[in-house]
Specification:
single chain, alpha+beta, two-stranded antiparallel sheet
Length: 126
């Protein structure tokens, strides 16, 4: 079954409407960031431990904001490299395909107004 939704880029000033409650994308992202608090961090650590993934707990180890200390060995690298792992969750908005077609047909009717500089450009090219 083919997906009937297409992702679009959202800017911080764009607005989401959840059944009459509207929020700017920036506020929505901020709420998501603050919701990843120590409770979610604890649940994540417990589940990773249950799956056999244990990490050294550090006082400023934080999966979502600062990242947690670790090392990585990449293919072809002669040694381990120190760094941090940070989990970043993205929010995507998908437009229904039929709405995209309507939007595209409406956009084709919109013509950009002619610039006063267009006459000068034509004269220069002639």
């Amino acid at each position: 079954m083919q997906d009937e939704f297409k992702p679009i880029q959202c800017n911080d000033g764009d607005v989401l409407d959840f059944g009459g409650n509207t929020y700017k994308i920036a506020k929505f992202k901020q709420a998501m960031d603050t919701s990843f608090n120590s409770t979610l961090e604890s649940i994540l650590n417990q589940e990773l431990s249950r799956q056999g993934i244990n990490r050294k707990q550090s006082p400023n180890g934080n999966w979502f904001q600062k990242g947690t200390d670790c090392e990585i060995l990449t293919l072809g690298s002669p040694s381990w490299k120190k760094g941090k792992v940070k989990i970043k969750i993205s929010v995507e908005f998908y437009i229904e395909e039929e709405d995209i077609q309507i939007t595209n047909s409406n956009n084709s009717e919109i013509t950009e107004p002619e610039s006063p500089l267009d006459d000068l450009r034509r004269m220069i090219h002639e």
